[in-house]
Amino acid sequence: MTIDNFDFNGHKALVRVDFNVPLDENGNITDDTRIRGALPTLKKILSDGGSAIIMSHMGKPKGKVNAKFSLGQIKDAVSKALDTNVEFAPDCMAAADMAAALKPGQALLLENLRFYPEEEGKPVGIDKEDPAYEAAKKEMKERQKEFSKTLASYGDVYVNDAFGTAHRRHASTAVVADYFGNDHKMLGFLMEKEVKAVDQILKDIRRPFTAIMGGSKVSTKIGIIENLMDKVDNLILCGGMTYTFAKAMGGNVGNSICENDKLQLALDIMAKAKAKGVNLVLGTDCVAADAFSNDANTQVCSVKDIPEGWEGLDAGPETRKLFSDTIRGSKTILWNGPAGVFEFDNFTAGSRAIADAVVEATKNGAFSLVGGGDSVACVNKFGLADEVSYVSTGGGALLEAIEGKILPGVAAVQG
Ligand code: AMP
């Protein structure tokens, strides 16, 4: 079943969205991208003459009620975005009456699902090493089923539009789908778009295919780097992981971020790329700073020759050209992770050069997918989000999908 050909008229739709939006200390939303992302799905349900029971998590309350993570804080913003008064159910397990009272065109927002440990389905307060852990896990799985059953009872059709959590088998993202027939569960519009974008990267590759992996550490990206090695023509590794590679090759990296226990891994990646004929592109020079600060003194130096007390915080001019030249000629591009500490205005040049080259390649017909929290923040900071082919809302979910894993949230509705 697809959302496009389902008529919600007279139906009560239970919709999992990702409203895990960032809030400031006064509870004001600082970036409403995720709310806007769910609007096409919610508007279709309401304008068809259906009603919507909207459910989401926010933050990590770890199975306990915590006002700091209450979705009540965003009720007004959601009402405004949907242009209708959205009701709020302060306990997601006691919302049956409110859900039943919904009329066509009306919406109800449930309180944060993660106020209950059943949502994530992990036993709380017991160590994995504890002999009683397995029994506790089993018990929690049973409780998760009951929790899901209650959620399912609020609606007669289930829509999953929360790509950000699609890699988790949580109650609201996957287990709940078991209580709906195949013709009464589907992906929302945002999920459909995300899945299509990943398919384009994995199945419909136009070459050359260039992946740009940045960010702070190689250890958190190793799964995807290894997987991409079988697919890409060019693999640009940048950001903090540059210095692990530089040190592995015998360089001096000063105070730069460096994973000393991953030096062999870096050498292995280089050998693997060579064996597979992948053009591995590593930074050659960097902008080094004498402190981890926007106002630090800087100098350009080789990534293998960083003076004591200095640290590489951005790609240098030679590297920027190398990256840009590689990206410009590409026809498929995946970008995850910045090339430097882009949060500091004085260290954005590397990420900016990548963003500009991705935009240029896109103008020349490339398909470009930007995903993973920080690279999205990066293109947003540069105002270039509209000039790449697709900006994913998923971090971990996107990477797992590109690693080729089947996402539980997608599998649960597609069978
Ligand atoms: P990740 O969450 O692994 O994608 O890493 C993103 C973070 O990596 C951003 O906050 C960047 O500031 C940081 N980063 C990128 N380059 C460097 C660098 N050379 N040194 C320290 N942090 C970096």
Write a brief structural summary:
This protein is an alpha/beta fold. The protein has 14 helices and 15 strands. A 6-stranded parallel sheet has the order 3-4-2-1-5-6, with helices on both faces. Strands 9-8-7-13-14-15 form a 6-stranded parallel sheet, sandwiched between helices.
The mean pLDDT is 95
CATH-level-2 architecture of the largest domain: 3-Layer(aba) Sandwich
Share of β-strand residues: 15-25%
Low-pLDDT segments: none
The strand count comes to 15
Q: How would a textbook summarize the main sheet?
A: 6 strands, parallel
Fold-level CATH name of the largest domain:
Rossmann fold
Write down the secondary-structure element order: EHEHEHEHHEEHEHEHHEEEEHEHEHEHH
Q: Cα-atom Rg, whole angstroms?
A: 23 Å
Strand order of the largest sheet: 3-4-2-1-5-6
- Measured distance between first and last alpha carbons: 11 Å
Shape: globular
> What is the structural class?
alpha/beta
CATH class of the largest domain: Alpha Beta
**How many domains?**
2
CATH superfamily of the largest domain: Phosphoglycerate kinase, N-terminal domain
Give the fraction of residues assigned to helices: 25-40%
Structure description:
The protein is α/β, with parallel strands linked by helices and 415 residues long. The chain has two domains: 190 residues, Rossmann fold; 198 residues, Phosphoglycerate kinase, N-terminal domain (Rossmann fold, 3-Layer(aba) Sandwich). Helices cover 35% and strands 15% of the residues. It is built from 14 helices and 15 strands. It is globular and about 70 Å long. The termini are close together. The model has no long low-confidence stretch (mean pLDDT 95).
